[in-house]
Amino acid sequence: MDLIWYALLGLFFAAYLVLGGYDYGVGLLLPAHGDDPDRRAALTAVGPFFLGNEVWLVAALGILFGAFPHLEGELLSGLYPAVVVALVGVVLVTVAVQLRGRPDRLAARARWDHVVVGGSALAALGWGAVLGGMLQGVPLDAAGHVGGIGHLATPFVAATAITLVTLVAVQGATFLSLRMPKEQAPRRAALVDRLVPVALGAVAVTTLLGLLSADVRAAVNAWAFLPVLLIVVVLGAARAFAHRRPGWAFAASSVALVAPVLVVGLGLYPAALVSTVDPAATLTVAEAAAAPSTLRLLSWLALPLVPVLIGFQAMSWWVFRGRIDGKAPVYW
Question: Which terms does the UniProt entry file under GO BP (predicted)?
Fold first, then answer.
């Protein structure tokens, strides 16, 4: 039962990275849109999905708090600076996107656009640091306490944070290639062409730093770096398909955002959180899970809710499929 819930936690967080990833990617790329109408069009492209995408984060956090209370406490205490940065970014983006259309003056809208860009960067950096911190492990002692925050100030954690920013930017670019008017396709393809090499370089640096880090090598199963190679392959496919097949490009960049979650989940298992100071203090998935009776109760609650959530997401994509045009509703 605990393994099923652990897989469900990974599924929900991966779905959030994929769906919220293009929200933040579009936000990061706002400076690439020169004038206010162009920036507003980019936000309109993401408008029908924006708030619904964040539901996956709420669901993932709900699973963490309900099904893995021990992991929640030690994860948040060990990585709380990164979690706070991520959540601050999420809030800033949510607020700024909805308020940027209210002022009439272009200068005021531009200031809100800056908040969207900054919030998107913080969200991606924060979640990237959380994933990097989990791969690296935390100084968890036998009493279940994590001392200090210095373990987050490492080249590997910084590299994972930056890598997620680049992957999110690629996701935003491929999403816009699907949703913006077709006459803008060459411009979107050129943007993907510029971003993919940057993302590939970031992935390569992160992989190298992980291999050089004694903590990462000790915490992660050796074969768990194979999904990182998948990221490289997928980003190469995104670049190849960008000009003629935007759907394939978006699918590829989406898989690239799923891969880091696979690296963490498969690489650490059966551990959920690795201690870098006391191997005996490492928290396994079974130890992190709630009591079997609690998991059974949560299963009965989740049984009707998960299909509804997936069905709503599918319906949203189906209803708002296709490219935006001058008749598309303006959300912001």
Answer: aerobic electron transport chain
Query: Considering the entire predicted model, what is its pTM?
Result: 0.91
Question: What is the average per-residue pLDDT within 107-132?
Answer: 92
pLDDT for position 197: 86
**Is residue 284 within a helix (H) or strand (E), and if so which, with residue range?**
strand 283-284
Query: CATH top-level class for 2-318?
Result: mainly alpha
Structure tokens at 291: 């009591």
Helix (H) or strand (E) holding 283: strand 283-284
Is-contact 126 161, C-beta < 8 A?
yes
Characterise 94 by phi-psi region: left (phi > 0), alpha (psi -120 to 50), beta (else).
alpha
Q: Give the C-alpha separation, 166 to 138, whole Å.
A: 25
Backbone φ and ψ for 329, nearest 5 degrees, come out as -65, 140
- State how far the alpha carbon of 85 is from the alpha carbons of 57, 151, 173, 180, 185, in Å: 15, 16, 24, 30, 34
Mean pLDDT value across the chain: 84
**Residue closest to 49 by CA, chosen among 247, 244, 246, 324:** 324
Q: 142 is written with which tokens?
A: 């036998």
Token readout for 312 is: 């709503």
123-141 exposure pattern, b = at least 16 Cβ within 10 A, e = fewer: bbbbbbbbbbbbbbbbbbe
pLDDT-derived band of residue 229, with 50, 70 and 90 as boundaries? low
Peptide linkage before 181 cis (omega within 30 of 0): no
Which has more confidence, 27 or 47? 27
Residue bearing the bigger pLDDT, 41 or 328: 41
Domain boundaries, the chain: 2-318
DSSP string, 120-153: HHHHHHHHHHHHHHHHH-B-B-TTS-B--SGGG-
